[in-house]
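User: Structure tokens for both sequences below?

Assistant:
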Amino acid sequence: MEQKTSPISNLAKIFICGRPMRLRRGNKLLVIIIASFSAAVLLVQISVIKHLSKEDSDSEILDMPLTAAGQNSWAEESKTMDKKCSAAVDKLVDCGINFLAIDFDQTMIDVHTGGRWQGTALELTEHMRPVFLHLVPEATNRNIRIAICTFSGQTKHIRDVMEYAFPNIAELIVIRGNDKTWEYHGNGFKRGKQQHMASAAEELLAEQALGVTDVTKATTLLIDDDPKNIRMSLKDRTRAIWFNPKEPNELLDNILMLK
């Protein structure tokens, strides 16, 4: 008894075995449809390959090291920043400043963590502003001590950031945040950042290894992006500079205008 074969079975023989055979009209139409489909798939595959090749090429371009011109430009910018920071520190010394109290969120770093940073300390270090990466070491070399005065309670993260950003001087930097690890019992003004600065000054004076023998309101400068903290500091007769997060390098010009 003769067995009937389906059009798909016949096509399988054609494509798998590669042997020519006579096709019925229905089979011919199916061959044309499948051939057209195969061609379309091939075109899609070619398009995808081209796209992936372009992405790889773009990635290689992005991963390429800086050109000589780019390196020179970066070096010149860094050199210029060093000179400006050196001039700013000269001004601080002339003004009798030996203690810089610097805010953290939106001041030393370019984000506001709200005391709820979810990433790693290393990731947070990537948000350090270049102006402070130059200013803090320069000030420290001139025996001006640094304290981070913040309302954030994530002082462990901040300490780690200091270790990453300033590995050679991190131990000299005092940190005062709202972490309930310290109290200020003095008679000084306690609003704004005033008690943070007073407590940090007490630690600086207590630790002889930090090299500070006298810290007063007259020798202190607060740098903060919050105008309220600036007003409180000035009201308490402590010099302060408002830090503009949108123009971070203006800080150096403002230091040069100190009296």
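Moving on to the next sequence.
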Amino acid sequence: LAASQPSARSEDRFRSAVVILSIGFLGVFGGFNAAQGLQTSLNATLGNINLACLYGMFTLLCLVAPALLDALNRRLGQRLLMAVCALPYVAMVLSNAVEMPPKPAATWALPITLNILVGITSPLLWTGQNDYICRCATLAALERATDEASAAAEEVAIKRWTSLMTTRFNSLFFAVFQFSGMCGTLLSSAILLALADSSVVKDVLFLSLGLVSLLGALTFLSLPSMESSGAAES
């Protein structure tokens, strides 16, 4: 019992880190998803172009994201990198408050550029999320396995606990993250209903959504640092 209590406490430490990560994503995507959902209705043709640029870049850069993430993690660290990668989301949300002409114009360059930036940083943010949860799960599994297994059985215990912790932490993350759609929609609906006849409704809507996304991005700065499993084992 005495040995299991430290293990449980250390698991709680890693679980708390996953909760902080989840809250960061909840904030960033709570604002972003709501703004993105209004793209085509607010901006018509420009909205379609924005989405095409965003997801086109996202798809292409997913192929090189792991190598880029490794290099940038060494330079910036996990916390700062995630916060920086989330800032284009904030900027994209806020850019919707700027009035855009219905026909192609030079001002279209602003939202198009910001959506391209979101497409560039999205693979890094999501690959970083996966890497962070993997590190938490692996480190928690190492501590659990070391506490309860003999040297001969430790490798088997590590595999079992790694699988279990990965499942637990991913379930926790997505349980929190999936609230982002609901939260953003509720906030948008409340603002649109409350200020339906006001001339500032669009400004208030996207400034509020941008603030939510910014708070999520800043949350990443409070993440505890997690070393790679290779470093931990050595």
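User: Anything stand out in the second?

Assistant: The two ends are 28 Å apart (CA to CA).
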